[in-house]
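A favour, since you know our C-alpha cells better than I do. Go ahead and set the record down below.
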Amino acid sequence: MKLQRLVACTLALLLSACAHAPERTLYQELGGQEGVEQVVELLLTRISDDPRIAQQFASVDILNLNDKLELDPDFLASDYHEHDDDV
C-alpha cells in the first residue's frame, strides 16, 4: 500500500513538472541567432574539409553561401505553423 502511494505521488509530481515546463523553440535550443550562425559555420567548415564531398563545392563561394544560409531570426524564433500559409 505504501509503495503504491509512493509510486502514485511520484508519478503525479513528474507529470505536473512536465505540464509546467516552458516550451522552447528549436531556435532557442540552438542558442538563438549566435547558435544558428555557429551551426552554419561548422557545417560549411566540415563540408570544405571533407575530401569525400569537398570537390562538389569547389566552385561555390562559401562566404556567399554562408550569407544565404543565415535565416531571419524572427522566422526561426516563431512557431513554424504560423508560416504554413506563406508556402
Remarks:
- The chain is about 60% helix and 0% strand.
